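REQUEST FORM: STRUCTURE PREDICTION
Request ID: SP-0412
Submitted by: Lab K.M.
Chain count: 1
Length (residues): 375
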Amino acid sequence: MTPLPTVEGPADLGWDRLRRWFPEVDDLIGCPQDLDFHGEGDVAVHTRLVVAALAEDPRFWDLPPTVRSEVATAAVLHDIGKPSTIRIEDGRIRQPGHARRGATLTRLALWQRAVAPAARERVANLVQLHLVPFHLLDRERPLERLYRASWTCGGLDTLLILAAADASGRVSSTRSDLLDRVGLARLLAEEHGVVAQPYPFGSDQARVQWFRRPDRDPAYVPFDDATFEVVVLSGLPASGKDHWIRHHGDGRPVIGLDDLRAVLGVVPGEGQGRVVAAARDRARVELRARRPFIWNATNLSRRVRAGVVGLALDYGARVRIVATEVSPSVLAARNASRRRPVPEAVLARMLRIWEPPDPTEAHVVQTVASDPEEG
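STATUS: Completed
RESULT:
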């Protein structure tokens, strides 16, 4: 695995050094922004000011070295999604969805650099959530947003430090208001004990059920009578899902969407409704009998996984999501050796929707890298 850039002192935050690591930021040069919120200039100028503000924050230097590297990387890439989302609406520059798009671009950039999955996802989540502290208290269900961010970022401290730098790196009449909002978000995080750690649910069952129904009391610990486990695989084609089943399946039934496509005569790219319906029917048979099984599909997005996980939870199963990963070069080699390789255009679309699972989705979330020597 490749470590992120080390940040031992202010000199390590030099712009030329960071550009060598992340040449993608050159795409920010000349990308305009709404002058009411960013009078400092284009997105590249703003990003440089954010990094400079980070260097002046004592809280940043109090972080452990590896965490500093993650926050610095997120600061460099936090607006990487703006060039591809720019819109002109009523004469104003808008970049709707740039944080989510930026998370996708960040994830791919760090995956291509072989950054460890856990570190990569923390950085991508910081990019996706970097605006949350600005709006936390004036949006619906602030505690859900607070607790969810605490689980995906490993506590709120890093997100709050990044947001403060983002606000400081602006020339705008809203700058002081944004900093006040970050301060209030920190107070709320301190009140709920989620600055340095995720919210401490009483059990895995309490965590999973609360994120399904965040209108409940988060301190409530529901009775857990699960006697069987459903494994939901998640990963790109050729990332090692079948390899995991061969070595860890333990003879459990496998509901595989690829197998069902072959049985039903449905080719990839056609409507998959019949395939999914048949898979869910088979799953219900196992769930009613309270038998463990494995659901084998790409399950690349949270939305798709939620349908499978929700079905299993409704029947009282414990759910483990196993996310399989390999490097881009191994993925390409394996795909090319397949009898029916996935077209590059299809893989590119899959990468654009790829959202690795996080602990808010299931009782256990496990990331495994399959042996490059195995098929």
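NOTES: The mean pLDDT is 94.
Reviewed by: T.R.
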